[in-house]
Design a protein that fits this description.
The chain is α/β, with parallel strands linked by helices and 369 residues long. The N terminus is likely disordered. It contains 14 helices and nine strands. The strands form two sheets. The protein has a five-stranded parallel sheet with strand order 6-7-8-3-9, sandwiched between helices. A four-stranded antiparallel sheet has the order 2-1-4-5, covered by helices on one side.
């Protein structure tokens, strides 16, 4: 019982952490922290392996004992019935009835052993899954050096994206020019490719046609990890991990100083929130930041981007689904952050678009066609 409980707790820890990592994988990749999670997952899985092997040892030993006990018990019953039948103390029908029922009396014990074997088969299947997951990633192609977005323009020329299995393009013939330090607003109807454009700029989607040039260098020839190290991303629904508030803020820059952290918190308007929390920055958040409101999670994401201190910021509708007061606070945080940086912001609402130096409206590819 103790081994089973320990295995269950370890499995719950593994599944919870793994699902949390999978849900926030995009965030981890953008902030360059995906590899750091590998060691954590490896440590948890190793602990699960040890507890599982301890449970299996107990399972096989108990199965052996149960089978031996059931077999010996049935044999003793058969000997006793045979002797009674031989000396005339039992008739043949009664003897056969007892011999048929004797194995059924120990059926529950046999089922326990069978269930243990079924669990062993499940673990074997899990090992095969992990073998697939552990397959080495193909070596990356040689990439060019990454131009600094703070000193080079971002030029999008004839950009088009068509996802596999779809005939209609998600993005069709888009051209943009974003100068260093400029705030570009991108707007348009749903389905016009705004999020796809950000995915291309993040290096998650390869263009079907056209190009994205940074200082004359095609984005597809740049090491994606080095490129993402020069940008920050604030999604519409930022992912916060199960951990302390400070750990979530330091995700993009674990080595940031206390002064830099305090400054990012102040600029994002989080000071009052932290003061109201029982343990301040050490307060543990639930999965996906369950203890915070939507606006508070948004400000945490902005503070996380501020702490990263990079020249390029990508915002995907950061004020969507927020009330007027919270929206104003988030916009003010974005205003402070955008100073001196290149910013691409996807937005529908006019208050956020008012921050932009230029606004580009994308048309739906279907409508354009």
């Amino acid at each position: 019982r103790q081994h089973t409980d320990r295995q269950l707790r370890t499995l719950q820890s593994l599944s919870g952490h793994f699902l949390d990592v999978v849900a926030g994988l995009t965030t981890l990749k953008v902030f360059g922290r995906s590899k750091a999670q590998v060691e954590t997952v490896r440590r948890v899985t190793d602990r699960y392996r040890r507890t599982t092997m301890a449970t299996l040892r107990l399972a096989f030993l108990s199965s052996l004992v149960l089978e031996l006990f059931a077999s010996v018990a049935v044999a003793l019953v058969a000997v006793s019935v045979g002797l009674r039948l031989l000396y005339g103390h039992l008739d043949l029908a009664t003897s056969l009835f007892v011999l048929i029922l004797a194995p059924e009396s120990y059926l529950p014990l046999r089922l326990v052993g069978a269930n243990y074997h079924a669990s062993a088969e499940g673990l074997s299947a899990a090992e095969q899954v992990f073998e697939v997951l552990d397959e080495p990633v193909p070596p990356p192609v040689e990439a060019k050096s990454v131009p600094d977005p703070a000193a080079n323009s971002l030029v999008v020329e004839g950009l088009g994206v068509t996802y596999p299995g779809r005939r209609q393009p998600a993005l069709d013939c888009i051209s943009l020019h974003i100068a260093p330090g400029q705030v570009l607003g991108v707007t348009g109807p749903n389905g016009c490719g705004k999020s796809t454009l950000l995915a291309v700029l993040l290096g998650f989607v390869t263009p079907t046609r056209g190009s994205v040039m940074v200082g004359g260098t095609d984005l597809t020839t740049i090491d994606p990890d080095e490129w993402r190290a020069r940008l920050a991303w604030v999604p519409q629904r930022p992912h916060l991990f199960a951990g302390s508030l400070e750990e979530n803020l330091r995700l993009g820059n674990p080595a940031a100083s206390v002064e830099a952290l305090r400054d990012a918190v102040t600029q994002a308007g989080l000071s009052d929130l932290i003061a109201s929390l029982p343990e301040g920055l050490d307060t543990t958040l639930g999965e996906r930041g369950a203890r915070l409101s939507a606006g508070e999670r948004q400000r945490v994401a902005i503070a996380r981007a501020l702490l990263r201190d990079v020249p390029l910021l990508l915002l995907d509708e950061p004020t969507a689904h927020l009330d007027g007061v919270t929206e104003a606070e988030v916009i003010e945080a974005v205003r402070r952050f955008a100073h001196g940086r290149t910013v691409v912001v996807v937005a529908h609402r006019s208050p956020l678009l008012a921050l932009c130096d230029q606004v580009v409206s994308l048309a739906s590819p279907r409508a354009a066609a």
